[in-house]
Amino acid sequence: MAHVTNQQADSILDKEYKCLNAGFVRLIDYMGGDESIVQAARVSYGKGTKSVNEDRGLIRYLMRHLHTTPFEMVELKFHVKLPIFVARQWIRHRTANVNEYSGRYSVMKDEFYIPEHEAIHFQSLQNKQGRRTEDVPAELRQRVLEVLTNTQQQLYTEYEQLLEEDIARELARVNLPLSLYTEWYWKIDLHNLFHFLRLRIDPHAQYEIRIYAEAMAEITKTVCPLAWEAFEDYMLKSERFSRLELNIISGFLPSETLTKEYLESKGLKGREADEFLEKLSHLKKSSSQGEGSR
Amino acid sequence: MAHVTNQQADSILDKEYKCLNAGFVRLIDYMGGDESIVQAARVSYGKGTKSVNEDRGLIRYLMRHLHTTPFEMVELKFHVKLPIFVARQWIRHRTANVNEYSGRYSVMKDEFYIPEHEAIHFQSLQNKQGRRTEDVPAELRQRVLEVLTNTQQQLYTEYEQLLEEDIARELARVNLPLSLYTEWYWKIDLHNLFHFLRLRIDPHAQYEIRIYAEAMAEITKTVCPLAWEAFEDYMLKSERFSRLELNIISGFLPSETLTKEYLESKGLKGREADEFLEKLSHLKKSSSQGEGSR
Amino acid sequence: MAHVTNQQADSILDKEYKCLNAGFVRLIDYMGGDESIVQAARVSYGKGTKSVNEDRGLIRYLMRHLHTTPFEMVELKFHVKLPIFVARQWIRHRTANVNEYSGRYSVMKDEFYIPEHEAIHFQSLQNKQGRRTEDVPAELRQRVLEVLTNTQQQLYTEYEQLLEEDIARELARVNLPLSLYTEWYWKIDLHNLFHFLRLRIDPHAQYEIRIYAEAMAEITKTVCPLAWEAFEDYMLKSERFSRLELNIISGFLPSETLTKEYLESKGLKGREADEFLEKLSHLKKSSSQGEGSR
Amino acid sequence: MAHVTNQQADSILDKEYKCLNAGFVRLIDYMGGDESIVQAARVSYGKGTKSVNEDRGLIRYLMRHLHTTPFEMVELKFHVKLPIFVARQWIRHRTANVNEYSGRYSVMKDEFYIPEHEAIHFQSLQNKQGRRTEDVPAELRQRVLEVLTNTQQQLYTEYEQLLEEDIARELARVNLPLSLYTEWYWKIDLHNLFHFLRLRIDPHAQYEIRIYAEAMAEITKTVCPLAWEAFEDYMLKSERFSRLELNIISGFLPSETLTKEYLESKGLKGREADEFLEKLSHLKKSSSQGEGSR
């Protein structure tokens, strides 16, 4: 046996996926792929996996039933260049390995995040953490950009002057802004990467980190196309309904129409159709007992 | 300020919740409660939490939106006595702290798992990992129990004989069975405990570990009643629907009926009603584009 | 049984330990103490702990032999106010729980790190990451402080102006500097806290994070005085010697002088003296085989 | 750029390293090697690494100074077959990914740990957890082996009978012994693997897990020869001395003899000699203040 690799993935190794004005994501190395998810699952379930006899079906089964450990057997390593305020959100995901460029050891480079015109938004009214869709007038956008870029240049000049005076690097940098770019190597297993992507592709995530998550989604899809498809179908494009929401929904779902034949005609095959019918029958039962509120 | 505690929780400290024939779970200590979830969230969101001005609402909001870090601020410590085969499933949850009784240092005690009559089941036919609901004949049950208990006694006698010959404890124990009881201290934060409970209360979990999960659910509910309620409503009794399932469901949900007034009449209040309507409008949009299968 | 607490520790709950010009550390809550380390160890080792019959001796034994799990049974929760560049070093410790103040939800406050005169240093010459001990002239110090504080005020004014224009908070903040103060709740178990303190009390750690580590050391000592003493003796004030260094050292250690009586006269008691003699006999053996270099 | 691999390591992919009577370790896949440790460190330290201009020196510097994150950039995946009592010690290392053969899904195989004659020992007298070196009489060894193997066959027969009666697999297995073999895939990064090996190669670890640790040490050395050498010199064959031990030792180390020239003649080169002298000067200082006991 040899390393599990795939040509598609090998062809994007080291390729820069541009993000924001000066950042990027690059896939540096990876270990495993769809094949190694299947390999690990077959060790776990032994003969128990015979009935699911093709790889795609097995991977989808694992994803659907939250059997997450086989996905941990794939590892991806990225090189990322990103603004510090994005890095601060990113690093909250603790199940990864990181080596970041250090402003104690080295001189930070003169590169700052400058938003594109379309990324400049008003504060959202309903949403404490978001941006409003309403357009910011071109003239105000221009002014914002000027303030940002002028100040960035000034801050870097002050930084350079402190270094010239031979002030310790670790101190000279303290007034550098959160818009400054940093770099890191970031390594994570596929299960935890999916978790990261789910949270960071979400419309509630800040625009600037979403850009990175989307680039990494492209890369991940290339490394593990089957796992990615399962992730999309059962996680990314799925929806969770609460107890109360289920009570409401279930009233509108006619058991007599929702037969196995009907489901299959709509694309839900064999085992998945059974699982859906089982879910529905639970709903009916619990909603007939459930109170409307509490 | 002082420790965040609650009387109800203090009154069950150290109480034995019996599990299986000779096991138990005891709450040994805990740190924090509903109050400290709120406290941590208010630091995170600062003035941003003003609009959610009561604790219950805030906790439910956090749970609904997967803002999990405030739940990590509560910690529970359990003393558990459990059969080794249950311990082997349990320990797979890596985000906890454990101190287990050691068969290298100490002599294992003469206590084994013996199933109750009703816990003896046939192998499930559809489910590779489960038990069949069909009844096992009383006579066969009796035989199973006899085999198990006789062998357990024999194994313990052999163990004792090896110890009498002064064979090293770490070696003398190797033929002790998975049904032997062990003990441990197990400490975990509330977020990770919820994750553990969600997987182990599930009907697909093995019966014997479910018994422990249910006892711990009781305890958790006492320590953090509001967080528990939110966990039940948005996680435990929620249901996830895949992309394809959503395509099917959305066809049956009449936008004209599902108004905010209707939802409120069914118990979905203010913000939650809005969020539900937003989810529905996404569904409609994506299902009108979505293909039935792929 | 009740919560394991101690009066000394309770008396410092919530007390502000000032750090730098505007930061602090406060102990918000804790679970357990020396007593619960012992309690957990006695479950692990069962009767095996009988021979170590007093708490202090047992705790020291555990620390010396890297039996770290009982130390994980104690948990401490801190409230910390700290500059962002310190927070960025701190967060690299992944085995903790964090809730940080969010600049997306809330307006950042007008507080910045301003070094004391004595904390302004030249770049170290030998050490890539450090500060030089040589004094910075008073006049240069003054200039550094002026640059820092003037710029901080300017940056905050620009931030306020962007907020007044109703630019989204998450965008308005991107030019705020690393010297800005943030706040968080930070919860960690004692074993991992010791690891954090060992790295951050070290003279190679940046001065500004060391100040926090020292405040937390004070607090930790109050919560678990016996564990702290063991940590100091066997970790903080211990020293590791490499294979080659041991080869050199062992040539100078006279076996005939280093008897158990001698060691006891110097304060190394019973078991510890035996362990030391065993270490020495290993050294002698391996150094007589060991080559000088490779 | 392409995957970081090495021929030596590729040549042992999939090779069985036999362990105990029926177990093994196999390297299934790996990501990175010495080269990727260096690559990650150079990102972290930027120009700061220029002074350490060759790979071996840099890797040794990182190991010596506990800069552990670059070692996390290498990942190894093993397939292991091991007795359950060994698996129970092994799984306590939480920073790894595991897929284990499941006795709920599949029928366990008829393979049990049978110790070699030389592995049968008496209980250690001083050491609560160990074996005594004194020989067990051949006749007693024979008897122990007979008891173990006879009982193992009986237990497997009973297991098969329960399966024939169609009792659920998850229940039928509960009397199977800890000596039964299981299998898993186990994936870990190099830093955490070193930590595992340090604890499990140690003479205090149980003999049976040590055998596995030694096989994995061979494999690791092949994947990362330079990192392994540094690990041996600075960790595995290093020794830690406590505060009190240092007080004693330092009295015997003559400053006048221990010059840089002397150290270099003994193989401690440049930077390392300086670091050693710095350690010594600390010792002298603190021991002249230090009390003998407390």
Could you give a quick summary of the protein structure above?
The structure is a homotetramer of 294-residue chains. By secondary structure, the first copy, chain A, is an alpha+beta fold.
How many domains of chain A? The number is 2
The major β-sheet of chain A equals:
5 strands, antiparallel
Please compute the radius of gyration of chain A using only Cα atoms.
24 Å
The span between the termini of chain A is 59 Å
CATH architecture of the largest domain in chain A: 2-Layer Sandwich
Q: Indicate the multimeric state.
A: homotetramer
Largest interface: A-C, 55 and 55 residues
Mean pLDDT of chain A: 91
Total beta strand runs of chain A: 6
The largest beta-sheet of chain A arranges its strands as 1-2-3-5-4
Order of helices and strands of chain A: HEEHHEHEHHEHHHEHHH
How many helices of chain A? The count is 12
Briefly, what CATH class of the largest domain in chain A? Answer: Alpha Beta
Return residue spans of chain A where pLDDT drops below 50 for at least 5 consecutive residues: 290-294
Q: Predict the CATH topology of the largest domain in chain A.
A: Gyrase A, domain 2
Strand share of the residues of chain A? 5-15%
Structural class of chain A: alpha+beta
